[in-house]
Amino acid sequence: MKPSRLLRGMAVLLALLLISVPARATGQIYFTVINNNLLPLTSDTMPTWFSGTLYVPYHVFDDNTSGAAMWMGLGTHASYSVSNETVSIYNLDRMLVFDLEEDTCYDPHNGQTYLSPAITRNGLPYVPVGQVCSFFDLTYSYLTNLEQGILVRIKSSGPWMTDATFINSSKDYLNLRLQEYNQSQTYMPAPPNPASPPEQESPENIPLYLGIRCQGGGSAGGLADVLDAQRVKGLFFFTPELLREQDDLARRLLSTGHSVGLLLSGETPEESREQLDRGGAFLREIACVRPAALLCPDGQRAEFQQDGWVCWQETAAARPESPAQQASALQSQEQVRLTLEDSPEMAAAANALLNQLKNRQFDIRLPMETRL
Predict the structure, then answer these.
(1) Regarding the domain delimited by 207-365, which CATH topology (the fold level of the hierarchy) does it fall under?
(2) From the candidate CATH numbers 3.40.50.300, 3.40.630.30, 3.10.250.10, 3.30.457.10, the one assigned to the domain spanning 6-183
(3) Dihedral of the CA atoms 66, 79, 17, 108 (nearest 10)?
(4) What is the pLDDT of residues 83-131, one digit of tens each?
């Protein structure tokens, strides 16, 4: 269960009692490094200070999206559930949940709470770097002796370069990133030609996420082939039994950038938890990862979300027939979570459906890449 809302006031009060650190000066540049990997430099994803605590965007702790190769990552993953207003950061053994509505931070496995809640900047959740590092046995450095700005370096245990060696060996790369950043901040588009009519702004692309329900229809691999050919990613939900039978497919999906979740179908939460335990153990055994998300019965979704799990909630179900009509109908939604079945008919129609979605300018994203 979530900690009580009463903790919200206590967390904020105690946060204000932390040692004060000045907010970053206007124009101060912050670089973020994961082990030996320098992350992209943008103004809306730089670390920031709040109430004396250093914060970083939550996705910095997601090995899938931080840009680091698997062996260079932190061994953690992160997800943002918009509907539940929670950020979950986890590895194989532990999970830390930030509730944005309640301003709380807790371990769903034992109910222990922590002082530093998450904050939101420009619609993006930020998490306290010190709290997350301490929870997952990571370390971080805050380095101010750079000509280019300030460097925040988060490290796992491993044969990484020392901070001094990293700075000395990365000067050219830091300068290049700084140059690219400065150019992006000073770019001015050319004025329109007065003789030409003003261009009409195109509507913003609609985010679309693909979930694939794998229940033994025999075509999960065929759907993966179509998605790979179209260069889009999906979230494949397996039952525990099918995950065990198709372990090679699960490993292939993970190695090619897709995500793997669990399909739960228990008549009670207890039965679904037993399936989660078995499926989670299988996935850990075959790929050394946790399930990325859950597809569970509607009546059980809230309970699993309270435990920090991201749960898939479709807004539309794909059909093998009439791909053009389906794509057109989806344009009325602000965000689409489209579920495909692993049937031969759906695999045969998937290519046409994806083409129709792309033609209508849907922005097809990996479900765990940003948020659900």
Answers:
(1) TIM Barrel (3.20.20)
(2) 3.30.457.10
(3) -130
(4) 788 999 999 889 999 999 889 999 998 989 998 899 988 788 999 999 9
